[in-house]
Amino acid sequence: MPYADPLVRKEYEVKYYIEKKKDSKWVEKKREKTRDYHYKNKEKRNAYGRKYYYENREKFRKWYQGRADEWNLSRRELTLQLRKEVLEKLGNKCLKCGYSEDWRALQVDHINGGGGEERRKINTINLYKKVLKEGSLYYQLLCANCNWIKKYEQNEVK
Ligand SMILES: [Zn+2]
Predict the structure, then answer these.
(1) Rounded CA separation 138/140 (Å)
(2) Which pTM was predicted?
(3) Of 5, 10, 53, 75, whose CA is between 20 and 30 Å from 116?
(4) Cβ atoms of residues 107 and 141 within 8 Å
């Protein structure tokens, strides 16, 4: 049993491939076969990719976390940028009392209510994009005070 030892076998295989690689016809044929195989097994490979991701998701998560700070910074910048545009679009002041001194105290309010539910469904960036698209038909600006009062009046406070 010459190949029972995996090291010996490996050595044999390496020698075999080195020899075979000199034969350009063999190389071309093998390349074609590989291409064919990949093409025919697209589904299988995709499934393998998903499985690989699933089994290594800890690794992926670490990789993601390593970059999260970077990404969050640009996300924060994007959020701020969008928020500015949203405030601009909705008039830059509280629709109820006219407060406009500090933009940080101005909040986007869903005119017909349901804002809380919406906030659970989509993130801030997407909400702002939605507001920019749908505009003052569905959204208005309220200052934090007026917004809380409205929430109590409409029984949205839990
Ligand atoms: Zn107000």
Answers:
(1) 7
(2) 0.53
(3) 75
(4) yes
Token digits of residue 111: 């005119």
When mean pLDDT is compared across 3-7, 88-92, 126-130, 143-147, the lowest value belongs to: 3-7
What six digits make up the tokens of 32?
Answer: 């074609």
**Residue 143 bridge partners (DSSP):** 106
146 Cα–ligand 1 center, Å: 4
Q: Which residues contact 105 (CB under 8 A, 6 or more apart)?
A: 99, 143, 144
Name the token pair of 103: 């933009």
Helical packing angle, 124-134 and 57-89, nearest 10°: 30
CA 142 / ligand 1 centre spacing (Å): 5
pLDDT-derived band at 146 (thresholds 50, 70, 90) equals very high
**Are the C-beta atoms of residues 131 and 86 closer than 8 Å to each other?**
yes
Phi, psi of 14 (to 5 degrees): -60, -45
Domain boundaries, the chain: 6-153
| Distance (Å) from CA 134 to ligand 1 centroid | 22
